Amino acid sequence: MIDYSEFRQWMDTLYRHPEWREELRRVVLTDEILELPKVLDKTAEIVQQTVIAVQELIEAHKRGEERLKQVEIAIAELAEAQKRTEQRVEELAEAQKRTEERVEELAEAQKRTEERVEELAQAQKRTEERVEELAQAQKRTEKWVKELADAQHGLGVAVGALQKAFGATVEEEAASVVEVVLRRKGYRILQPAFTLPLDGEIDVVLPLEEPSGRKVWAVVEAKARLSQRDVWAWSQRMHEPVWHQRLAEKGCPGPYLVYAYGIRMDLGAHEAAQREGIGLLKSDGEVLPPAALIEP
Asked: I want to staple 228 with a disulfide (CB 3.0 to 4.6 A). Which of 94, 160, 210, 272 is the partner?
């Protein structure tokens, strides 16, 4: 059996869930119980009839034996009605027993529901704790990523500075080599080599004068590692009329003595230079002379 607090809790649950209350009403208020008012009305009617019959019996007794038979019949009918009433009451008692059993089952179900809710609450608590752990891990990860990004940025700056310094060193070395090579060939250097920014920088520009007195311009593309593609692209640029015009606008009207310089160069670069007719330079001197001057 359930105690009063459990019963009140159960009743509160029923009021919060109208559909459960309706289901319980259908279970408890069976057709037999719903018929009870009619039975009681009929019983009251029978009782009323009994009263009348008793009165009639008294009157019959007064009137004599003629009415006694009618009283006996009425009493017999009353006894039969009483028997039926007792049977009906027994049926109602059985229905009440079944109702109590059903209520007990509902109480057990409610208890299991509450236990399940408690389990879910504990699971939710564990989930929240796990989420908090993940949030802390995410914060640590974001911190590490920021530190890594800062380190990457610093590395990029350092590499950029190194590349800039190395590039300047390669250009300076190319300028020094081309000056020595051309001076040995009899050219007169009119001014020190310089770099010309021109929609794609020309690494080395060197104004020269041939032994005949003609002014020419040595131009050099300088790479730490010179590839076949570098040679081809440099040759194409130096054969473009538009490029010649831009050089002229910058005070370098040509003709041009075209070289490519590389600290290292692959075999394809040498073949490309021969095919394109441009010169090749390394740190130890001229590898391949230009086939001819490129006229603007």
From this structure: 272
Note the pLDDT tens digit of each residue in 167-183.
Answer: 448 999 999 999 999 99
Q: What is the CATH number of the domain that holds 253?
A: 3.40.1350
Distance from chain centroid for Cα 149:
22
The domain in which residue 274 lies consists of 185-288
Q: Which two tokens stand for residue 277?
A: 């007719």
Q: Is the dihedral angle over the CA atoms 278, 282, 285, 287 positive or is it negative? A: negative
One-character DSSP codes across 81-136 = HHHHHHHHHHHHHHHHHHHHHHHHHHHHHHHHHHHHHHHHHHHHHHHHHHHHHHHH
Q: Could you identify the residue written with the tokens 């919060």? A: 16
For residues 119 and 195, membership in a common domain is answered with no
Work out how many domains the chain is built from and give that number: 2
Instruction: Tell me if residue 260 falls in helix, strand or coil.
Output: strand
Note the pTM of the prediction, 2 decimals.
0.46
Q: Please state, in angstroms and as integers, the Cα–Cα distance from residue 51 to each residue in 45, 47, 64, 75, 269, following that order.
A: 10, 6, 19, 10, 134
Tell me the CB-side half-sphere exposure of residue 273, using CA atoms within 13 A: 25
